[in-house]
């Protein structure tokens, strides 16, 4: 008889329903209308809430570029800029401040998915959100670029556990072909953050001189959602407690039965460091991670330098460069949801990744090698839509093709960890000396898009062969004989 995380954690007891030798759980039955209500409640309490928390996280990171444009880069010794109280970001100082966030962000991600299991999402996510929000507030009072860089290191440590924990948590609640839309909605809220961070910065710039503070300092005084997250966020489905008023135990058992029927890993095995680390031997995990690295190299490059590109390359003024950064991310959110919906409906992932990369490969030359300002701006739309829409698709791609709770946890951590490495690369691709054309950075973005197409093609060929062998009974996928097939 299979069990949840023990009676000590208050988790779901599986004694009241059947578990056979294939680990199939016969959960309670509901009408289609009742099932829709259950998933709607899960979506509201899980996807929407952590999506808003991630929105705050991304805004906190994007604030650096907006603060730079708002005067943080200026030299306070220059009488012309004395009122801006800048940090004199000459040379590579801004690049250094951008990239020092990522080494601790990468290092502390690997254990995060184990910690979130031990502490529970409410305590783990609520605490780190509270702490990094406090660091952001402290950044508003920094007077030295080196201190700001140190604060960014601390921010990287605190934010490291958030995204991989969210990716892992979402993957435990939904079946494979329910994930695409949910991951898209989760990340769309992040796109909203990227879109409105610039608009918010534009509005905040009117606070120049208020309380004797420069406008860029006000940008760091953001509102964070730690207390709301702590009060409302839910745990893993196998950790149900009577305090979960939004779902009954019977309804949670239904969720677990659906997940188990889909991929057979709803029941959590006892943690083993050997099992956890052995997942690294699966070469496909590193392919997913590399796809994510290529995507995030471009997305972070845009997040950190789009205001600069708009100002120096497309010649918008300081305020308009903040405003004009919003529409491409709104368009990206639309593409993101549509591709997530199509992926779930037709049960495909790889072709969508390739499609999004082609969008980006069309957008980059339009931005970098045409002369019409409107056409170049349209290129930003295509580039932002392609690379940002691929973030949730890649998350779903790996989640659909992984079995086992601890392998899923390891894969979530490595995926987001490589995303952090992409953040380091993205911090460096658009260099100050390459302004205003930024051609080397655009070439790097093109290379990332092309490499993603190559990797997905290799995985598609492998998955097609493995699925064909599994259907013929020659070889089982992931060591299971229950008909599991890879999602192409």
UniProtKB/TrEMBL annotation:
Annotated localization: Membrane
Gene3D superfamilies for this protein: MFS general substrate transporter like domains
Chain intervals for the UniProt region annotation (Disordered): 1-30
Domain Major facilitator superfamily (MFS) profile: 46-465
Segments crossing the lipid bilayer: 42-59, 96-116, 123-142, 154-173, 185-204, 216-236, 285-306, 326-343, 350-369, 375-397, 409-429, 441-464
Membrane topology term: Multi-pass membrane protein
Record key words, sorted: Membrane, Transmembrane, Transmembrane helix, Transport
Pfam families: MFS_1
Keyword Transmembrane helix: yes
GO terms of molecular function: transmembrane transporter activity
One Gene Ontology cellular component: membrane
Keyword Cytoplasm: no
UniProt xrefs under InterPro entries: MFS, MFS_dom, MFS_trans_sf
Protein name according to UniProt: MFS general substrate transporter
Record organism: Microthyrium microscopicum
Taxonomy of the source species: Eukaryota, Fungi, Dikarya, Ascomycota, Pezizomycotina
């Amino acid at each position: 008889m299979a069990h949840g995380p023990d009676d000590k954690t208050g988790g779901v007891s599986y004694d009241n329903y059947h578990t056979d030798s294939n680990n199939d759980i016969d959960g309670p039955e509901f009408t289609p209308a009742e099932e829709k209500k259950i998933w709607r409640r899960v979506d509201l309490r899980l996807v929407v809430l952590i999506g808003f928390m991630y929105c705050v996280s991304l805004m906190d990171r994007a604030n650096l570029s907006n603060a730079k444009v708002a005067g943080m880069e200026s030299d306070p010794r220059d009488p012309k800029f004395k009122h801006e109280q800048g940090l004199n970001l000459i040379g590579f100082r801004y690049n250094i401040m951008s990239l020092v966030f990522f080494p601790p962000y990468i290092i502390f991600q690997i254990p995060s998915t184990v910690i979130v299991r031990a502490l529970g999402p409410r305590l783990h996510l609520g605490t780190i959100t509270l702490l990094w929000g406090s660091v952001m507030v402290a950044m508003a009072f920094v007077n030295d670029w080196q201190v700001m860089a140190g604060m960014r290191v601390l921010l990287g440590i605190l934010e490291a556990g958030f995204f991989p924990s969210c990716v892992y948590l979402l993957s435990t609640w939904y079946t494979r072909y329910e994930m695409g839309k949910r991951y898209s909605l989760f990340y769309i809220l992040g796109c909203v953050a990227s879109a409105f961070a610039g608009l918010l910065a534009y509005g905040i710039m009117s606070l120049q001189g208020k309380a004797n503070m420069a406008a860029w300092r006000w940008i760091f005084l953001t509102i964070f959602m730690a207390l709301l997250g702590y009060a409302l966020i839910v745990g893993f489905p196998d950790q149900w407690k009577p305090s979960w008023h939004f779902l009954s135990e019977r309804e949670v058992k239904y969720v677990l039965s659906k997940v188990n029927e889909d991929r057979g890993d709803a029941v959590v095995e006892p943690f083993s460091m050997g099992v956890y680390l052995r997942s690294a031997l699966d070469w496909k995990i590193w392919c997913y991670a590399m796809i994510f690295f290529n995507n995030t190299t471009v997305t972070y490059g845009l997040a950190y330098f789009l205001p600069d590109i708009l100002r120096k390359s497309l010649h918008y003024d300081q305020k308009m460069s903040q405003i004009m950064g919003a529409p491409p991310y709104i368009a990206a959110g639309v593409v993101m949801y549509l591709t997530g919906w199509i992926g779930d409906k037709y049960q495909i992932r790889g072709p969508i990744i390739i499609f999004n990369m082609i969008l980006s490969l069309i957008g980059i030359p339009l931005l970098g090698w045409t002369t019409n300002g409107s056409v170049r701006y349209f290129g930003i739309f295509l580039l932002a839509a392609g690379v940002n829409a691929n973030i949730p698709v890649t998350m779903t791609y790996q989640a659909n093709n992984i079995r086992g709770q601890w392998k899923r946890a390891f894969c979530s951590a490595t995926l987001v960890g490589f995303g952090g490495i992409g953040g380091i690369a993205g911090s460096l691709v658009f260099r100050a000396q390459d302004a205003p054309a930024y051609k080397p950075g655009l070439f790097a973005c093109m290379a990332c898009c092309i490499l993603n197409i190559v990797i997905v093609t290799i995985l598609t060929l492998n998955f097609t062969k493995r699925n064909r062998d599994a259907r013929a009974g020659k070889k089982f996928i992931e060591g299971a004989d229950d008909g599991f097939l890879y999602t192409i």
